[in-house]
Design goal:
393 residues; alpha/beta; Aspartate Aminotransferase, domain 2; Aspartate Aminotransferase, domain 1; 2 domains; seven-stranded mixed beta sheet; 40% helix; L-methionine gamma-lyase; EC 4.4.1.11; Cys_met_metab_PP; pyridoxal phosphate
Length: 393
């Protein structure tokens, strides 16, 4: 059923026909490491790429293949690639696209492990890493040059919700032949489709909203078919070995079936909680794209069909107030990750973004008092009641 147009329908049906699989409504789970060949000649042809087929699950697997086709369809890309984690997706892509003396331009706010890979990984292998405030596209226009191979950013950014104009950055990058790589974990393809706005590659931590249930670690990347094949055979196969297991692919496929419903509820709950936080005494600032006070609200409306489930806020009293309030929570879980059914709260400076030095956090827009909430699927009143008692008790 590959001709269906609706997003939700494709998330459930795309690239799978039950009657081709003995009527099984749920796609089969192929728990095999290797595949046999009909003949020696057939094996040679598959290895050479002259015939379609699977020969080893580190390269491809039917369960992963279905997930790759489905996420590519949802993102509007030619091809997808399933990987072991979000960081495996990021590193496999960048190891493939970059070489010594190349430059990568990145936004100044990134997930902590991404920052660490760039700052302490790629940089020591001769790749120039340039940090810019990409919320102002003129900064990219002034800095990009012939050695720039990649422009990389998250939007919204983890953890402070900054938004980058994908379309404007993509147009500037294309003038210099640089590829634009966007981490779309916060938005998912349901809310933002960077490929349609000019990006070349999209990466995801599928651990988050795509899986949606906090029971899987997985990554995905999508883009043009030839580039994705290069990443499969070099960045993933040879450089990182970050291969997704078939069982994890099955869990992400399950998650995609309810992505639309869950994201609608995440957005609804987060918008309500953000408004209440903004009106709450003791809260000095709230960052959520759906708030009228959010400085980049017009851009959010332009490239997002909804404002997501993530909120950042700062309390009067800074870090100590944040720790005190987090310790008073009863239902909301103190945990990293995001996109789960449960509401999760964490302190980026001491948790997910601790790989930054204090000076780096300050210059990259991550204050010590910033608190991040991944708003879950519980009843709004219960989420707010827990937050409110912790803040005002």
């Amino acid at each position: 059923m590959t001709d269906v147009k609706g997003f939700s329908t494709r998330a459930i049906h795309y690239a799978y026909e039950p009657m081709d699989n003995e009527g099984a409504l749920t796609p089969p789970l192929h728990l095999t490491s290797t595949f046999s060949f009909e003949t020696a000649e057939a094996g040679s042809e598959i290895f050479a790429g002259d015939r379609k087929g699977h020969f080893y699950s580190r390269i491809s697997n039917p369960t992963l293949d279905l997930l790759e086709k489905r996420i590519a369809s949802l993102e509007g890309a030619e091809a997808g690639l399933a990987l072991a984690s979000g960081m495996s997706a990021i590193t496999s892509v960048l190891w493939t696209l970059l070489a010594p003396n190349d430059e990568i331009i990145v936004d100044k706010t990134l997930y902590g492990c991404t920052f660490s890979f760039l700052q302490h990984g790629l940089a020591k292998f001769g790749v120039k890493v340039t940090y810019l405030d990409l919320t102002n596209p003129s900064n990219l226009e002034e800095s990009i040059g012939p050695q720039t191979r990649v422009v990389y950013f998250e939007t919204p950014a983890n953890p402070n919700m900054r938004i980058v104009d994908i379309e404007k950055c993509a147009k500037l990058a294309k003038k210099y032949g640089a590829k634009v790589v966007v981490d779309n974990t916060y938005s998912t393809p349901y809310l933002t489709r960077p490929i349609e706005l000019g990006a070349d590659i999209v990466v995801h931590s599928a651990t988050k909203y795509l899986g949606g249930h906090g029971d899987v670690v997985a990554g995905l990347a999508v883009g043009e078919a030839e580039t994705m094949q290069q990443i499969r055979l070099y960045g993933m196969k040879d450089m990182t070995g970050g291969v997704m297991s078939p069982f994890n692919a099955m869990l992400v496929l399950r998650g995609l079936k309810t992505l639309t419903l869950r994201m609608d509820r995440h957005c609804l709950n987060a918008a309500s909680i953000a408004r209440k936080l903004e009106a709450c005494g003791g809260v000095s600032k709230v960052w959520y794209p759906g708030l009228e006070s959010f400085e980049q609200r017009p851009l959010a409306e332009k490239q997002m069909s909804g404002f997501g489930g993530m909120i950042a806020f700062e309390l009067e009293g800074g870090l100590e107030s944040g720790r005190r309030i987090m310790n008073k929570l009863k239902m909301i879980r103190r945990a990293v990750s995001l996109g789960d059914t449960e509401t999760l709260i964490q302190h980026p400076a001491s948790m997910t973004h601790c790989t930054y030095s204090p000076e780096e956090r300050l210059s990259h827009g991550i204050s010590d008092g910033l608190i991040r909430i991944s708003v879950g699927l519980e009843d709004q009143d219960d989420i707010w009641s827990d937050l409110n008692q912790a803040i005002n008790d």
